[in-house]
Design brief:
Layout: E1 5-8, H1 18-29, H2 33-47, H3 51-56, H4 62-77, H5 86-93, H6 98-109, E2 113-118, H7 125-131, H8 134-137, E3 140-143, H9 144-147, H10 154-165, E4 178-182, H11 185-194, E5 197-200, H12 205-218
Parallel strand pairs: 1-2, 1-4, 2-3, 4-5
């Protein structure tokens, strides 16, 4: 089978690693990443699901997420804690991963097809879409905040596949003709379980490029 579609993640693939954005917030706010993680874990134990996951599925507003996190952080750290300005700090710390963007433009110029599959926040859509040439590159976009499911849940891969198959010339595309590039291994594992191929994005980029080229050479168009 030929590789006909590359499905790219957004944060940590089209951008620098997301850890850098979280570390920038730690430095600016003084709230340690361990405390953010503990707060999310504590809320998940109380409410049954990680608030970040609920947010990314569009089932909680960003304003409510801030309230939930601030309340929990104040339990942990005291009343003076302010969980605010996270969005600004997060986006200020992100920048384009130009090497991978160039790779995708070359792939598209050679006839390859591109889709985007992202776990994201509904209210952030204008910000992240404005950062990069999203509409120039991708023919279809699946954003967790708008479809009510997130990676690694099986349904989001089904939605992505359905949307890809609805594109001109791709009605007959097989699952294993689609390759997900994602920086989180569990998301890649779930994609493989669904029937996609998958490559985990990591630095150095040359290793990822070599893996993608290897897959493409094994499955010539």
């Amino acid at each position: 089978m030929s590789v006909r579609v590359i499905i790219s993640d957004f944060g940590g693939v089209l951008t620098n690693p997301l850890e850098e954005a979280f570390l920038a917030y730690q430095e600016e706010s003084g709230i340690a990443l361990e405390e953010l993680g503990l707060a999310m874990f504590s809320v998940a134990e109380r409410d049954g699901e990680n608030p970040l996951y609920v947010l990314e599925k569009g089932q909680m507003t960003y304003a409510r997420f801030e309230e939930v996190m601030q309340d929990q952080l104040r339990v942990q750290l005291g009343d003076e804690v302010q969980f605010s300005d996270f969005t600004e700090c997060y986006f200020n710390a992100l920048h384009p991963n130009q090497q991978f963007l160039d790779f995708l433009f070359d792939y598209k110029a050679g006839g390859g097809r591109l889709a985007l599959l992202t776990n994201n926040v509904k209210e952030w859509e204008p910000r992240w879409r404005a950062m990069l040439p999203i509409d120039e590159l991708f023919e279809t976009i699946v954003d967790s905040g708008f479809v009510g499911t997130r990676k690694p849940e099986p349904r989001i891969y089904e939605i992505a596949y359905e949307q890809i198959k609805s594109l001109p010339g791709l009605h007959d595309v097989a699952r294993d003709e689609c390759v997900l590039v994602d920086d989180i291994e569990i998301n890649c594992d779930a994609a493989r379980e669904f029937g996609f191929q998958a490559v985990r994005y990591h630095e150095p980029f040359e290793v990822v490029r070599g893996e993608l080229n290897r897959i493409r050479s094994q499955h010539p168009a």
